[in-house]
Automatic annotation (TrEMBL):
Keywords: Signal. It comes from the Bacteria. InterPro entries: DUF481. This is DUF481 domain-containing protein. It comes from Larkinella punicea. Residues 1-20 form the signal peptide.
Length: 282
């Protein structure tokens, strides 16, 4: 009888114990392999670090780079003023032999219902043997300026360049070209006629970055004396940029331009200081 009771109790509890030990798998969840998660995270981090530490555009021998800057101001009341400025920098290494670049810009300004600025610059440059320290270049540009009373300015030339420094975070070069310029002023006078000259143009260009590309400085200086008449042009700019995200940054720049021959009623020197946003892809 005792054996019968023990067998009965054992028969009742055995199915319950077996049911408690069986755990049904969750068919809606699939655990990712540990190695796969780790490799994905590592790849993502490497990609982000590579983007942050991308070389300066001028020293990168391959690929397409562009930068777009924009700033402006609008005021109303005692003074009604509007000023909008947009600029770009495009650089494309199409092969180991040729590289194309352009730096177009546009500025528009009105004050008290009067047009003051409508500045347009479109240029195109090509470089041959750009991967070498010593290279060749040619370019052309079209310029319109209401501020300086220039109806149209056409320039074109060719020459040589030399890289003084070409590293991942620093680039410095000097170029020298023979340049032809034709400037058609909106108004002429007995003292100032349209300009038709040959120039020797020397340019010093530099681009530097640090802290994985978060901070960068660029500068350009042109010195362009005429060869067939007393006429000098020079201009330069210096820009400092802070990258806020992988695409957006803040940029401040100073620019100065001097021309010894200008339209009647215009000043020889123009200075500009701007601050705005930058969209940049490397």
């Amino acid at each position: 009888m005792t054996f019968f009771k023990i067998s009965l109790l054992f028969g009742l509890f055995l199915p319950l114990m077996g049911h408690a030990q069986v755990v049904k798998p969750d068919t809606l969840k699939s655990a990712a392999p540990v190695d796969s998660v780790a490799s994905d995270s590592t790849a993502r981090l490497k990609k982000e670090e590579a983007a942050k530490a991308a070389p300066v555009a001028a020293s990168d021998p391959t690929g397409f780079h562009y930068k777009i800057t924009a700033d402006g101001t609008v005021t109303a009341g005692n003074v009604n003023r509007a000023l909008i400025q947009v600029g770009g920098a495009f650089d494309w290494a199409v092969s180991q032999l040729f590289r194309f670049a352009s730096n177009p810009s546009f500025a528009y300004g009105r004050q008290n219902q009067q047009l003051n600025e409508r500045e347009i610059l479109a240029d195109f440059r090509t470089t041959y043997l750009h991967e070498r320290k010593f290279y060749y270049l040619g370019f052309g540009a079209v310029e319109v300026s209401n501020l300086r009373k220039i109806h149209q300015r056409l320039t074109g030339g060719a020459g040589v360049g030399y890289k003084l420094l070409s590293r991942k975070n620093a680039y410095l070069s000097v170029t020298n070209v023979l340049l032809y310029e034709y400037t058609d002023f909106i108004t002429n006078s007995a003292e100032v006629q349209d300009v038709n000259v040959l120039r020797n143009s020397t340019r010093v260009f530099g681009e530097y970055q640090w802290n994985n590309g978060r901070y960068s400085i660029t500068h350009t200086i042109f010195m362009q004396p005429a060869l067939n008449q007393p006429n000098l042009r020079w201009n330069g700019n210096l820009a400092f940029q802070i990258r806020l995200t992988s695409l957006i940054g803040v940029r401040t720049a100073v620019q100065n331009s001097y021309e010894s021959v200008v339209a009647a009623g215009r000043k020889n020197n123009d200075f500009r200081w701007t601050t705005g946003l930058v969209l940049e892809v490397k």
